[in-house]
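Hi again,

Forgot to attach this to my earlier email, sorry! This is the prediction with S-adenosylmethionine bound. I've pasted everything inline since the attachment limit keeps bouncing my files.
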Amino acid sequence: MVHLEQCNQPSCEDSDSIKKSTMESYDRQWMRQDEDAAAERRRRLSSIADPLLSMVNPLSGKVVLDLGIGTGSLAFRALELSPPKAMIGVDFSGPGLRVARTISKHAKFNDMDVELVRADLERMPIASRSIDVVLSQATLNLLPDKRAVFSEISRVCKSGARIAVSDAFKTSFSSSEGSWEQCIGGTITVSEFSTFALNAGLIILGQTDLTKAVKELISSGKWDWPEFLEYNMDYRAFMMMKSG
Ligand SMILES: C[S@@+](CC[C@H](N)C(=O)[O-])C[C@H]1O[C@@H](n2cnc3c(N)ncnc32)[C@H](O)[C@@H]1O
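Structure tokens for the complex follow:
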């Protein structure tokens, strides 16, 4: 087990209050987004979703799990590009899942197997060794207990499963005193991420730097995330595999 001395893990009490305010913040955000706004978000973020999905496509015949599905910008993009056998989306925001449920009933997705689960990503009601592909976009930073979520990813994955996640990362130029809800307070470095992955039995197969694409989305007003620029973050996509 490699130890993470630099990575500040909040206490249980702080963790609970971080999660409560994160949930309230996303409930408010998703309540304001109807299915058209969600489709627009999906279109706008496709420039970062597509490189992530290219790491695991084709998805045919696979059981796919999207961690922090929100209104489904990553999951429905995956269904558009390469429909899997089943897509399971987990999130703790009821309003986000409601929008995702409405979209899943559209003619385009109606005959696909989409299951939406309201749960905490640090304790998922998903069977062990049942998942072929894990996806996640801009979510892991929001989780106070990184060790728990990496261990959950490892538990639910079949041996050899692929994991493609993208998020903001702290660099030597970053300051992480920003808010948790904006994916800043909980950011970690690439080295800390790699250690969490290794300790959970995940092998890193590759990574792509998407910082330029994210900066362009923010500068052109397509992604309302000024904190990413303000706190000098990087944005990377990682491809991993669950070891035997
Ligand atoms: C920035 S949004 C990203 C949504 C989606 N992946 C996308 O790219 O559009 C983060 C999502 O993670 C969810 N989330 C954050 N912490 C969570 C937790 N502990 N358990 C379950 N969902 C969580 C939020 O409710 C929110 O929908």
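The pocket of S-adenosylmethionine is lined by residues 19, 22, 26, 68-70, 73-74, 91-93, 96, 120-122, 137-139, 142-143 (CB under 6 Å). The chain has one domain: 12-242.

That should be everything now.

G.
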